[in-house]
């Protein structure tokens, strides 16, 4: 198991998960958000090739009101 | 004879041709329905939006996004809350994917008390984002040199503040805003932040600014929908006034009624 931070909350996950598997494991829908790992944007095209590492910080952002 | 009752209609910004010169925010309204009505009544064609963390299975953000999509107007994602060029660049890239636009309202905050933009990080982020294909709408102060640096890195649009975000203090320093207008006739200039009253919008537009961006002044009004209409007309009135050309100010009074034939004046000697 590895420990990662998802939107500020610590989660324990299986090793060698890619972003696509992470989304499923965390019960996210398949679209309507964007992801950054360690403050770097990861595009949808790169989800499968991006493997989550122990200690990673992951941000999952969706549209909200803004000024 | 001209019969022009509207400001010189269409204008261009970020590669789009628009009629409205008001950019409106989507935050702080009493309800989503009120937000929707206010945006519609404003007739704004650009609405600002943001990105925030979403919990798993949450639908709230998407409900908001569904309303905005239904409005069928241009979306301008912001990087609000970012404190470094790195954070702003990542947020802009995430926004480009989610909102499917290369427009970004670049905000890099340098001071938490008055939410003043960090000019150094803003310029750094703007340069990188422009090279990455973004149309950058940078939120900046009314500092002429910062405006010059932003123009130097390729910004075609500048958005100096009227006063701090959400303060409603209007235009703190009209002479600085005027200097930026004079110095950069070729850039699109939007007064962003601090507008509180419709008269502030008139003042900004009379300075020759291409548009205004506001949120709190409408959303926090007692009747946001009515205030949205007020700002629509204020923006148009200010633009019309600018296009019409205001009279020269004079130091002394000058009668407007003809003096020839003034009654009750008699020469006896």
TrEMBL record, chain A:
Pfam families: ThiS. Signal peptide: none annotated. NCBIfam families: thiS. This is Sulfur carrier protein ThiS. The lineage of its organism: Bacteria, Pseudomonadati, Campylobacterota, Epsilonproteobacteria, Campylobacterales.
UniProtKB/TrEMBL annotation, chain B:
One of its GO terms (cellular component) is cytoplasm. It comes from the Bacteria. One of its GO terms (molecular function) is thiazole synthase activity. It is an enzyme of class 2 (transferase). Belongs to the ThiG family. InterPro entries: Aldolase_TIM (IPR013785), Thiazole_synthase_ThiG (IPR033983), ThiG (IPR008867). The gene is thiG. It is found in: Cytoplasm. Keywords: Cytoplasm, Schiff base, Thiamine biosynthesis, Transferase. This is Thiazole synthase. It catalyses: [ThiS sulfur-carrier protein]-C-terminal-Gly-aminoethanethioate + 2-iminoacetate + 1-deoxy-D-xylulose 5-phosphate = [ThiS sulfur-carrier protein]-C-terminal Gly-Gly + 2-[(2R,5Z)-2-carboxy-4-methylthiazol-5(2H)-ylidene]ethyl phosphate + 2 H2O + H(+). SUPFAM superfamilies: ThiG-like. Catalyzes the rearrangement of 1-deoxy-D-xylulose 5-phosphate (DXP) to produce the thiazole phosphate moiety of thiamine. Sulfur is provided by the thiocarboxylate moiety of the carrier protein ThiS. In vitro, sulfur can be provided by H(2)S. HAMAP family: ThiG. It comes from uncultured Sulfurovum sp. Homotetramer. Forms heterodimers with either ThiH or ThiS. 1-deoxy-D-xylulose 5-phosphate binds at residues 166, 193-194, 215-216. Its EC number is 2.8.1.10. Residues 12-258 form the Thiazole synthase ThiG domain. Pathway: Cofactor biosynthesis; thiamine diphosphate biosynthesis. The active site is at 105 (schiff-base intermediate with dxp). CDD domains: ThiG. It holds the Pfam family ThiG. GO terms for biological process: thiamine diphosphate biosynthetic process.
């Amino acid at each position: 198991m590895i420990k990662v931070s998802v939107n500020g909350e610590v989660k324990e996950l299986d090793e060698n998960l890619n972003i696509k598997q992470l989304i499923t494991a965390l019960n996210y829908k398949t679209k309507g958000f964007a992801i950054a790992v360690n403050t770097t944007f990861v595009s949808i095209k790169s989800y499968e090739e991006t493997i989550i590492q122990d200690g990673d910080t992951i941000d999952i952002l969706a549209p909200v009101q803004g000024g | 004879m001209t019969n022009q009752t509207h400001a010189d209609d269409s204008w261009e910004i970020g590669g789009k041709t628009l009629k409205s010169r008001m950019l409106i925010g989507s935050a702080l309204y009493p309800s989503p329905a009120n937000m929707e009505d206010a945006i519609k009544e404003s007739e704004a064609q650009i609405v600002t939006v943001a990105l925030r963390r979403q919990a798993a299975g949450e639908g709230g953000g998407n409900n908001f996004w569904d309303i905005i999509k239904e409005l069928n107007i241009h979306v301008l994602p912001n990087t609000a809350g970012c404190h470094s060029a790195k954070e702003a660049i990542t947020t802009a890239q995430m926004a480009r994917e989610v909102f499917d636009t290369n427009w970004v309202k670049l905000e890099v905050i340098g001071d938490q008390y008055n939410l003043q933009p960090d000019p150094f990080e803003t310029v750094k982020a703007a340069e990188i984002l422009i090279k990455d294909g973004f149309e950058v709408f940078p939120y900046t102060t009314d500092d002429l040199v910062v405006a010059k640096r932003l123009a130097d890195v390729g910004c075609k649009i500048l958005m100096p503040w009227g006063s701090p975000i959400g303060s409603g203090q209007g235009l703190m320093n009209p002479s600085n805003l005027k200097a930026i207008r004079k110095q950069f006739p070729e850039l699109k200039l939007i007064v962003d932040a601090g507008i509180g009253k419709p008269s502030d919008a008139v003042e900004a537009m009379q300075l020759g600014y291409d548009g205004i961006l506001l949120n709190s002044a409408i959303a926090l009004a007692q009747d946001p929908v009515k205030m949205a209409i007020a700002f629509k007309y204020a923006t148009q009135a200010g633009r019309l006034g600018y296009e019409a050309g205001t009279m020269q100010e004079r130091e002394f009074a000058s009668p407007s009624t003809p003096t020839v034939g003034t009654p009750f004046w008699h020469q006896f000697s």
